[in-house]
Design goal:
This protein is 63% helix and 9% strand. It is globular. A hairpin with a 2-residue loop joins strand 2 and strand 3. The chain has one domain. It is mainly α and 257 residues long. The chain is built from nine helices and seven strands. Helix 1 runs antiparallel to helix 5 and helix 2 runs antiparallel to helix 5. The strands form three sheets. Strands 4-5-6 form a three-stranded antiparallel beta sheet. A two-stranded antiparallel ribbon has the order 1-7. A two-stranded antiparallel ribbon has the order 2-3.
Length: 257
């Protein structure tokens, strides 16, 4: 029992360290109100995120490859934000100098923080995938998920068809993680659901702090639609796929990632 509690504590500490950048981003959202008389909140968050990423790299808390992955996710997230905001899905009502097509540049860091967590957790828990599907089905699923985020405003939403593909291709997949010398495992699909749920909880905090607003929150804050859990789960799957594929490429080339 004592050993179990010890390992559970280590699991919690390592997860907390893996969440460092996401926690910092949410901290900046809260703290930005304190500086709003001197600098636009969105600009403050953007500049602070850049400086913090630089500091994490200098302190060797993030590797060069992890920084590249975070940058890629920032761009993917920013592209999605620009599309969603300009079709009226949500808005960033406050003024900012660092804005592109009504979207503050800091918004990409909210997606990058997900990538940061995955990269950190992968390294800290020495994650390994068992029975990971072959490359092409996995990549096709990732592309379909990302494109559906855009196309579902003009074409039928195919997320549930994609979900069937995910269940089929990932039904035998397990993620193995290490705590000290002991290995644990869980179904990959369960990990998708759990991370998506906790990001949805974090999204409720973010909208409450004024990071962005959905159209149904303009007259006052209300809980984020439960359907967003599935949206975050799909985003996590895309993130998982990108990071996992990069890890496998690195492993085959015998270089560290």
């Amino acid at each position: 029992m004592i050993n179990f509690l010890r390992q559970f504590l280590i699991f919690g500490i390592q997860n907390a360290l893996s969440c460092l950048f996401p926690v910092i981003v949410f901290g900046l959202l809260a703290a930005s109100h304190l500086f709003s008389d001197f600098i636009a909140r969105y600009d403050f968050i953007f500049i602070a995120c850049i400086l913090i990423q630089w500091l994490l790299y200098i302190l060797k808390m993030e590797t060069k490859d992890e920084l590249i992955v975070i940058g890629v996710f920032h761009l993917l997230g920013l592209a999605l934000e620009i599309f969603k905001v300009n079709i009226g899905a949500w808005s960033y009502p406050e003024y900012a100098y660092f804005k592109v097509w009504n979207v503050p540049l800091y918004s990409g860091f909210m997606y990058a923080s997900v990538a940061s967590y995955l990269c950190q957790a992968w390294r800290r828990f020495d994650l390994k995938m068992m029975d990971w599907p072959s490359t092409w089905p996995v990549r096709i699923i990732g592309v379909l998920i990302y494109l559906n985020f855009f196309s579902n405003y003009f074409l039928p939403d195919i997320r549930y068809y994609i979900a069937v593909l995910i269940v089929f291709w990932f039904r035998k997949s397990w993620v193995v993680f290490q705590i000290e010398e002991k290995a644990y495992k869980m179904p990959v699909i369960l990990s998708f659901l759990l991370i998506g749920f906790f990001i949805w909880l974090a999204e409720n905090i973010a909208t409450f702090l004024g990071a962005w607003q959905y159209t149904y929150q303009h007259t006052g804050w209300v809980i984020v639609n439960y359907q967003k859990i599935s949206s975050w789960m799909f985003l996590i799957i895309v993130s998982y796929i990108i990071v996992a594929e990069l890890k496998m490429v690195k492993r085959h080339s015998n270089t560290r990632f």
